[in-house]
Design brief:
By secondary structure, this protein is α+β, with helices and mostly antiparallel strands. It is built from 27 helices and 18 strands. Helix 11 packs across helix 23. The radius of gyration is 56 Å and the shape is flat. The protein starts with 17 loop residues before the first helix and ends in a 19-residue tail after the last strand.
Length: 902
């Protein structure tokens, strides 16, 4: 309901719900609202107000007889929930919504009402609450669906928050608003209203009230102190449990922090240490490898010096000639290997070219001549074979497309019964989707016609004569305009003709009666019942009018007729015109029939034939491809041989082998002539082998040293990067102290993967301890909650209305039951109520016990009055609420003009 800024008037007879609106508002403003105050005041306070949040939620509609007594009758006896939302806005566009949410379980009583309060900048989303209403409301569930809102389970904190947001500086504004909303709360006159609700009472009256009150309340105070003692005993375990719960939270928070970013920071510090160890280890290995490499190089250099000296001695004694011959021998061996490769390639080229010639100089010359002539002969054959290859591949592709089309048609036939082409079926489906006309109300002519029993031989002729009529869409008259608009606004596949079957055909009925035996209409069965009755009748009349063809088997008989139809499909439309349409002569193109069973069988057989033809076409294409590739390889080989003009000496390995044999013989002759150099040659070979082995060993050590150097550089880079990350987020001293005991095995860690494994074990241990701490805290919280719920059952819900029964009430319950804070104001003489200057100070010092709504004193707390502790009469005391946020203020001294501080 919108409330206008300039004012909103609510008017109506009794019982229409005016007071209910104000009661709803009070559920937001007050933790313990008094419902329907206007009605209570109208009755003079003689009747007890029976409207409560519980009865509103249950929907009380009166009383019902139960045995000899009566019980309340409710509209909602099961689980239910209620919500009240007030949205305030100002001229600046700021909007604030304050809401009160209540829920009741099935069979719940007055004390089972759950209360939650919410402040949000958006209107209350009732559908979102409905999603969680199958269970009791919880603060966590409400915070989940309203992440931007502030959720409260204690009205006191909620009220303080929304008063600040709405700019309500005085906590007495809302009680005053409640009295004004009641309408009848002025007490009979404006004077009474201002005296009791607006102005402060004179100090003399308060002093007199105090005198009366002191003596009348001493016994009640004593009883209250006894109650407080019992409450203290009942809540005695709370401080210890609260301390244990707080310690559990501290432990859980500490473990959560240790297992989060702080853990990663400490692990990074350990990673720096591991990288330092790795770098030191690589340095030691590199230094040791450098020493080995230096020693091996010294050995290699000594062997090289000895080898040079032996070679010098050998050359001085005539070994130069033998060395030259040996060098020539090595060159000849290399040349022979290369020549063998050339000969092998040439022989392979002759084999690929199909030239069977002897491998001689004459055969090599003949190969050049035959290759040139053979290339010219095969060029035309290759072109022809390539064309055959293209034809085979084109035939394969064609068969593949035909098979795909047949498979698509087969699939289409399986999903429909009609023989009409897929394009016509798609056009009808599109029209039905756009206009909302069912497809079965718009049949094609062919779907309503089939050959009669015994007239199957006339199917080809009937297909030719009636195809245009069979592909016509038959539309009921009431939908013809919509179909026409669709055809005008949209494109269709192919051509489509539609007719209005509701329009009568002139002379159609007489034409049907005049049909004679042997006419085309007698060869057909036509559906004319059910939803297609009109269309079937129209088809019958149209055939009787426009296709009244006598059917003759002998084409010569057509000459004697004005019009007719032959068995071969020739149509004679008048005496001078005959025609025949052979565009759709295949059985798969037929469109007449009530179903497509025959066509489905035909297309399935066609698919099987096409699959076999596709396999044959693929085999033929593969064969032509292989023949073409072989021909191409032969032509390439012939072309290479024809263009190879190297002489026989450059392609034959036999020439190189003869040269190698001659050099070997020269070496044997030279060695035989200088037999005394053989021991020296043996020494040179031994020294050369040792030098080669030392060189190889030095190369291996050099490679290993370079690998260690790369590892050393990588380790140094990793160390620098780890130090940089550690400088960005170093762990605190407290974190280091806390985590060091968990990493007792870190001294044996020298690799990062070992550190990762150790860190994973430590994190698992921390998470286990975190779970234990959370479990302990949850158990303690549940124990405290059970204590508070028992306290509420024993002493009522006065305190829980402000502080709740959750773990957050532990501190308030402790303060409310501490015996050292319970001090009753002692009685004083009537003279203390004088207007002396000491009265306010004395009153402030002795105002130590305030009163709840039920009249029970709440020690160690303060009252919400801005004037004085309301202890003058029991009637006035019942209107004050206990709070622990503000101290009692002294009553101002009496004067002629009452203060308007409220």
């Amino acid at each position: 309901m919108h409330v206008d800024r300039n004012g909103t008037l609510l008017t109506g007879n009794s019982g229409v719900g005016k007071s209910t609106l104000f009661d709803a508002m009070l559920r937001v403003f007050d933790a313990r609202p008094r419902s329907n105050e206007a009605a209570a005041q109208r009755a003079g306070g003689a009747v007890e107000d029976k409207r409560t949040t519980f009865t509103y939620m249950r929907g009380k509609v009166g009383d019902k007889a139960v045995g000899e007594g009566s019980a309340s009758a409710f509209q909602r006896p099961g689980a239910t929930w209620s919500a009240v939302a007030l949205t305030f806005d100002n001229a600046a566009g700021t909007r604030i919504t304050v809401s009160a949410l209540f829920d009741l379980p099935k069979n719940g009583t007055e004390s089972s009402v759950g209360r939650f309060y919410m402040i949000d900048s958006k209107p209350l989303d009732l559908p979102a609450i409905e999603d969680i209403a199958d269970k009791r409301f919880t603060k966590a569930a409400l915070e989940t669906i309203f992440p931007d809102a502030q959720i409260f389970d204690v009205h006191k904190a909620f009220a303080e928050r929304f008063r600040r947001l709405l700019g309500i500086s005085s906590d007495q504004a809302l009680p005053l608003l409640r009295v004004i909303q009641a309408g009848k709360g002025l007490g009979g006159s404006v004077n009474t209203f201002f005296r009791d609700q607006v102005l402060d009472a004179p100090a003399t009256l308060a002093a007199a009230d105090d005198v009366v009150e002191e003596f009348s309340n001493l016994m009640s105070i004593r009883q209250r102190l006894e109650d407080v003692r019992q409450q203290r005993d009942q809540l005695a375990p709370v401080p210890g449990l609260n301390k244990e719960y707080a310690q559990s939270l501290l432990d859980a928070n500490r473990l959560r922090e240790l297992s989060g970013e702080e853990f990663e920071a400490y692990k990074q510090q350990l990673a720096v240490t591991v990288h330092q160890k790795t770098l030191a280890r690589f340095k030691e290995l590199a230094q040791a490898k450098a020493k080995e490499l230096g020693a091996e190089r010294s050995v290699r250099d000594g062997l090289a010096k000895d080898l040079r000296q032996l070679e010098t001695d050998y050359n001085n004694q005539g070994g130069n000639a033998i060395s030259a011959i040996e060098q020539s021998l090595d060159n000849a061996k290399v040349g022979l290997r290369l020549r063998e490769q050339v000969e092998e390639a040439a022989r392979k080229a002759l084999s690929d070219a199909g030239l069977q010639l002897e491998w001689t100089a004459e055969g090599w010359e003949q190969a050049h001549e035959q290759a040139a002539s053979r290339s010219a002969e095969l060029k035309d054959d290759s072109q022809a074979l390539q064309e055959l290859r293209f034809e085979a591949f084109d035939g394969h592709a064609t068969k593949k497309r035909e098979l795909a089309a047949a498979q698509q048609e087969l699939l289409s036939l399986k999903t429909r019964k009609s023989l009409l082409p897929p394009s016509s079926i798609e056009n009808r489906a599109a029209i039905a989707a756009a206009t909302g006309v069912p497809e079965d109300r718009m049949p094609f002519g062919g779907e309503l016609m089939d050959l009669a029993e015994g007239a199957e031989q006339w199917r080809p002729a009937a297909e030719r004569a009636l195809r245009n009529l069979a592909t016509t869409l038959l539309v009921p008259g009431e939908h013809f305009a919509a179909v026409t608009r669709y055809l005008n606004d949209n494109k269709v596949r192919g051509a489509l003709r539609a007719v209005d079957v509701s329009k009568p055909l002139a002379g159609g009925a007489l034409a049907v009666e005049d049909v004679r035996d042997g006419d085309l209409l007698t060869k057909l069965d036509i559906l004319a019942s059910g939803a297609v009755a009109d269309a079937g009748g129209w088809i019958r009349e149209r055939i009787a009018l426009d296709f009244a063809y006598p059917c003759v088997e002998d084409p010569n008989e057509l000459a004697t007729l004005d019009k007719g139809l032959s068995l071969g499909g020739v149509v004679k439309r008048n005496r001078h015109t005959v025609e025949k349409d052979d565009r759709f002569t295949s059985r798969q193109d037929y469109v007449l029939g009530f179903d497509n069973a025959a066509k489905l069988e035909l297309v399935a057989a066609q698919v099987e034939d096409l699959q076999q033809e596709l396999v044959k076409a693929a085999e033929l294409a593969q064969s032509r491809e292989e023949s073409h590739q072989g021909m191409s390889r032969q032509l390439d080989a012939l072309r290479r041989i024809a263009e190879d003009h190297r002489p026989w000496e450059q392609v034959s390995a036999a020439v190189a082998a003869d040269e190698l044999t001659r050099i070997e013989q020269r070496l044997r002759d030279a060695l035989a002539a200088q037999a005394d150099l053989e021991p020296l040659r043996a020494n040179i070979e031994t020294a050369r082998q040792k030098h080669q082995a030392s060189t190889e060993a030095a190369a291996v050590l050099q490679s290993e040293y370079k690998a260690l150097d790369r590892q050393l550089s990588a380790a140094d880079s990793l160390l620098e990067a780890a130090r940089a990350r550690l400088e960005q987020a170093p762990p605190s001293d407290a974190t280091v102290t806390a985590l060091e005991p968990y990493f007792t095995d870190f001294g044996d860690v020298s690799e990062m993967h070992e550190l990762d494994n150790l860190a994973n074990r430590v994190r698992t241990a921390l998470l286990g301890e975190l779970h234990v701490a959370q479990t302990r805290g949850q158990a303690t919280s549940e124990r405290l909650t059970r204590i508070f719920e028992g306290f509420v059952r024993e002493w009522g819900s006065a305190i829980s209305a402000d502080h709740g029964t959750s773990i957050g009430a532990a501190g308030s319950s402790k303060a409310a039951t501490t015996p050292s804070s319970v001090t009753a104001c002692p009685p004083r003489s009537p003279s203390s109520g004088s207007s002396s200057t000491s009265a306010p100070t004395n009153r402030s010092a002795r105002c130590c016990t305030c009163w709840t709504r039920s009249g029970v004193p709440s020690p160690a707390a303060s009252c919400r009055s801005t004037a004085s502790c309301p202890r003058s009469t029991s009637t006035r005391a019942a209107s004050w609420n206990w709070t622990s946020s503000r101290p009692c203020r002294p009553r101002p001294s009496s004067s002629r003009t009452p203060s308007r501080t409220r």
